[in-house]
């Protein structure tokens, strides 16, 4: 790892000012992506601004069906929140299947969303739930936030503060994990809420997380797994790698969507 | 350089470290607590698992500076005069072969038993295997590792 200068922020405002004062700074959340990347020298920020001690960025609040989750809330906290599970069990289950227990103790929702790894789980949930990503300067709809793999609408120095969404009437996530890494070879989050049915797919697309209009249309007329039988998922635009080719991934999208719908 | 203070195995320690120092390197190189191992150094194998404020974390994937102010427990700190029930269970069940992964297995084992107890859930064999997702045994002796954790779960 190249050398860096470590700062520990005690408030969101302090984090933002430390970041803007740095040459080429980066926020350090759980470090479960950033530290490995720095060790491989694929990233070499001049300064690290650790936001793990910022209380205002942590926690889950549920009021009726409105849910807000702070950026620094860990995967383990999301997975074990009884309050969240009561209104949106699909999201708690998703968090409980990210990586392994040690990764879940450190890794955070904000870090995962900001990173937008094409095989990460949270981006599918944010998109399917129609979440709003709140930053230190504005609010961004999930539809506008996830732009392409590892690319988001975040500006330089912008920090995610929390995400909010309305818990859907029904919602679930089904993931086919890569047997070695446990990242998604394909993960589908299906949600039926006030704004209709939304289906978001991660792991499979060659440009990151995406929504499937065909599946949304099929499930809008009949929210049942067999309603997806007639939908054809094209291998065009699917990832193709040593783990699975595009046709295999296209098939996984349908299978995972059916499983998620059945579980919702 | 950053000046850090933390509690390791109940003892207060203070040091000046380079900002990029990993927690595992601080533990092994500065404190000479070499029971915590580095298997992969790429966050996958779990040989480096320690407890930070009571939670299992991969110490190769955390900066020492980020652990400042925390209570850290390593494999050297779990026995209290007698072996910890998890250590004894690994001994009783031949839960290790070369032993390289064992410190991480034991730290993850203690963590999972504590969590399941706190949440009132049963740690059955399937749960232990799922919980061991982040711990790799190159000797592949998982069967006895699972048996060991299962025995300790009944004793802790
Ligand atoms: C062994 C292993 C297995 C894993 N398996 C999975 C898996 O199955 N599914 C999955 O989805 N993920 C997986 N992950 C990734 C894990 O979920 C990470 O925790 C997550 O991707 C990043 O979160 P973090 O808090 O660790 O962020 P960091 O690593 O600290 O940061 C990641 C990036 O986001 C930026 N950032 C962090 N917080 C903010 C913020 N609030 N605002 C703006 N930018 C921010 C950082 O500057 C950095 O660029 C795995 C990781 C490991 C090591
Ligand atoms: S050495 Fe830390 S996970 Fe392998
Ligand atoms: S006992 Fe040899 S690596 Fe597990």
Tell me about this structure.
- The complex is a heterodimer of chains A (264) and B (156).
- Helix content of chain A is 33%, strand content 25%.
- In chain A, strand 4 (60-63) and strand 5 form a beta hairpin.
- In chain A, the strands form 4 sheets. Chain A has a 5-stranded antiparallel sheet.
- The model of chain A has no long low-confidence stretch (mean pLDDT 97).
- Chain A is built from 11 helices and 14 strands.
- Chain A has helices at 12-21, 34-39, 75-79, 82-87, 89-96, 101-106, 109-115, 122-128, 142-145, 213-221, 246-263; strands at residues 5-8, 25-28, 47-50, 60-63, 66-70, 132-135, 139-141, 146-148, 151-152, 160-166, 170-177, 184-193, 196-202, 210-211.
- Chain B is an alpha+beta fold.
- Chain B folds into 2 domains: 2-77, Roll (Ubiquitin-like (UB roll)); 85-155, Orthogonal Bundle (DNA polymerase, domain 1), CATH 1.10.150.
- Chain B is 35% helix and 16% strand.
- A 5-stranded mixed sheet of chain B has the order 2-1-5-3-4, covered by helices on one side.
- Chain B is globular, with a radius of gyration of 15 Å.
- The site of flavin-adenine dinucleotide has 31 residues of chain A, from strand 2, helix 2, helix 6 and helix 7.
- Residues 26-34, 36, 71, 98-99, 103, 106-108, 110-112, 114-115, 117, 120-122, 154, 159-160, 182-183 of chain A line the site of flavin-adenine dinucleotide.
